[in-house]
Each structure stands twice: as structure tokens, then as C-alpha cells.
Amino acid sequence: MAFPNGIADFRSDTVTQPTDAMRAAMASAEVGDDVYGEDPTINALEEEVAGLLGKESAVFTPSGTMANQLALGTHTNPGDEVICVETAHVRNYEHGGASANFGLAFRTVPSPNGEMSVAEIEAAVAGTSYGYPRVGLLAWENTHNVSGGTVVATDTLRRGSAYGHSIGLRVHIDGARLWNAIVASGVAPAEIVAPADSVMFCFSKGLGAPVGSILVGPEDFIREARWTRARLGGGMRQAGVLAAAARVALDERDRIVDDHANAKALATGLAQRYPEAVDAAAVVTNMVIVRESGLPWPADRLIAELEAAGVRTAQIVPGVIRFVTHRNVDAQDVNRVLAVADAIS
Ligand SMILES: *Cc1c(COP(=O)(O)O)cnc(C)c1O
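^ inputs. structure came back:
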């Protein structure tokens, strides 16, 4: 279902519009002051999500960035280092929050696809001895955004996390698009996050809700995170109106298979035309990465031609165009992209 203005917006899965069901749920949501712990819709959502993911407790947050920040700050002490892939959201796209809010630094693994082997994690922590910062946390990203929504293999995540735990690290999963990873892998929700102490996911990404994310983990950890959420100004009042829409999005999570099918169709169609630009086999969730180096024309030209045809996309880094599928683009919109690619001479 495209937008009423007819534009097919592939820039991100964050551009979705709330559905009628979400708006209806928001309108009728039972609410209270969540800072007092009295919003029944929030409380029910937190409890449901904790149960779904097999963890003790959960806290609703305004954004994924805040949920990640709460995890980083709660698992560590100032001066600690966090291990993650070098393109991780927690390192590159949270406005320096880890250092500004909690005095943290990063030690990175140069992974192309979000995976970190035990050997790579071992190498990253090597040399941490007297005088070096303490390594406090191992942070995964699943799905991994910059590589195009790739899924971290369950076994890799399990082994790496077990190694992290064995050397005293806490383990967190930035699962902004966790449900895309769950749907693509077929691994049960509680199983996919079992290796980690904590996990966050966004209702506002692949699930398609207007606002909200959630951090899940042990009860004492969530109690502490809730305190830090208040300190960062993330205590919301009658936020059950947001949780109500988030709940609808979560209930409809099975529809994510359509997004994955549309992304695959787009990747396959583009790869048939420009095999050097798109790796269709790598597309397993809702993102398609197109490399300018494999196109016969500059990325800007393709983006401008698409825009003229009512299709929106963007470069995530220079030379890399990203298409993201979501509930407001469909198979017809995929065909519109391919028709534009065919029409450019
Ligand atoms: C979007 C995103 C976040 C942050 O979510 P916001 O709600 O935009 O703050 C965190 N991690 C990853 C991998 C993301 O893609």
C-alpha cells in the first residue's frame, strides 16, 4: 500500500504511516502516568515483550538510540570499552552518546557483515592488560544495517557471546530490526536473543509503528536502565498511546515476510540488469544495497530519475544507495524502480 501522494519511499522503513488499526488502538488506549508506573498499556507491552524474548523485564523507550544508550550505560562503567563491528550503529550513529553520556570508548572488529568470530573478538580484546581500558561489553547488531540488513548467524552470535561471557563481558544485541532477523532466520525469538544479557528492538523500523523501542533484560538491569532513562529525560507520561500502536505493529509482525519478498524481487531484478551493482544472494531481509561502482551511470543520476518517477531512495554513504522495503511499498513499487532502471539510457 503506497502513500496517498503516490510516492514510493524506499529511503527507510522509518517513513511508514500508522495504519488505521494503529490509529484506532491509539485512540482507545487505556493510559496512565508511566513515570509512576501506572500506564496499563505500557506495562502490558513490556511484560508481553519480555515474555516473548524469554527475559525477565523490559522498558519502553522513545527511540532505539535511547534503548541502546541505556544498555551501554547500564552494563559498563565510565572508562570502559565496548567491542562491536566498526560500522555499528552504537558507535557511528548515536551522535557520540556512548562517550558523551557514559564515558565509553570502542574497540572494533572490521567486519563486512556484522559478524564477529571468537578469534576476532579475542584479537580485539588482546592487549587489554594493565594500563589499558577495561573492556566491559560486547555489542552485536542484528540485523546489521550498513551491510544491508544481513542476519548474524545464530551460531556465530552464540559462540561469540559465550566467549565474551567467559572473559567477564556483558553482551547486548542492538536489534533495531530484530524481527526481520527472526522472520528471515526462522529461529525462535527467545532463542535468537538467548546468548545475550540484553536486547533492544525498535517498533518504529521493520515493524512499522510510528514511535518507540524497547530494552529487554534481567530485572535488576532493567530497574537500573529505567532510572537512567529518567535521567536522560526519557520518562514519558501517558505514553500508552504510543505503546498501543507498537502493540498492533508487533501483533502484525508476520507481514514482514512480504517486505523480505519485495526486497528480494528488487535485488534480483536489479542484479539481472547490473550484476556488479547488486548482490541479490546477500539480500535476506528488507534492504537492498546498490553500489555505484557497478552502475553505468552515477548514483545521483539514478536517484534523480527515480525521484522524477515518484520513487524515493538515497545514498547511505557516498557511492552506496540503499532501498528499504516496508509496509508502505509493494511489488508494484518494485516494478516502478525496475522500469526507471530500464528507461535510463
Ligand atoms: C535505527 C537504528 C537504531 C536507533 O533507532 P532510533 O529509533 O532511530 O533511535 C539503532 N540501531 C540500528 C541498527 C538502527 O538501524
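The pocket of pyridoxal-5'-phosphate is lined by residues 63-65, 68, 89, 141, 145, 174, 176, 202, 204-205, 213 (CB under 6 Å). The domain at 8-16+255-343 is CATH 3.90.1150.10 (Aspartate Aminotransferase, domain 1).
thumbs up if we can close this ticket
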